[in-house]
TrEMBL record:
InterPro entries in alphabetical order: PEBP, PEBP-like_sf, PEBP_euk, Phosphatidylethanolamine-bd_CS
Keywords carried by this UniProt record: Membrane, Transmembrane, Transmembrane helix
Spans through the membrane: 12-32
Matching PROSITE patterns: PBP
Keyword Acyltransferase: no
Classification via SUPFAM superfamilies: PEBP-like
Full protein name: Uncharacterized protein
Top-level taxon: Eukaryota
An annotated GO cellular component: cytoplasm
Similarity annotation: Belongs to the phosphatidylethanolamine-binding protein family.
BP terms from Gene Ontology: negative regulation of flower development; vegetative to reproductive phase transition of meristem
Keyword Transmembrane helix: yes
Amino acid sequence: MQLRHLEAKGSIALYFHCSIPLFLVALIMARLSTDPLIIGRVIGDVLDSFIPTIKMTVTYNKKQVYNGHEFFPSTVSTRPRVEIGGADMRSFYTLIMTDPDVPGPSDPYLREHLHWMVTDIPGTTNASFGNVLVSYEVPKPNIGIHRFVFVLLKQKRRQCVTPPSSRDHFNTRKFSAENDLGLPVAAVYFNSQRETAARRR
Ligand SMILES: *[C@@H]1O[C@H](CO)[C@@H](O)[C@H](O)[C@H]1NC(C)=O
């Protein structure tokens, strides 16, 4: 009786001892399995895993972009509003919009296609305060459902980003490394596919 009691006490102690790291592991696993950027394979195909630290809101005509939501090409025909957080206006950010699913998601041999790039966006402002390095190109997905990814990167200083040579075969990771931009601080993506008469009704 006495021994069993002690054993029970011991296992409770063991439980508490282990429950903290187990709890953390469970939390990380839960985060991995529910992070829409991982499920949507944006992390993997375009970005390395990162911890979001800056708030970014992308809005097309009052419709906010949430991960994995579908937007009609007609809805995204003009550039969105992109508002960013951050502590103050002395930090500068680069915004990239890229399509990793060119020409189509089943064989994206032309990955990535750059749609938009704005640099020197001061923290707490919006993309219209930045410097457009590559103008907004309207998404026109022809084959399958494409992901259009907005990535926000923190610059080390102002005017440190060299314009990319081409929209085609763009590589967000490589570009970030070459321009000393480090890991993303925010990202969000939407899906879009060709608008047919049938789908539009
Ligand atoms: C950016 O912010 C300014 C000042 O708040 C505002 O006047 C402007 O309309 C905004 N532009 C966009 C494209 O969101």
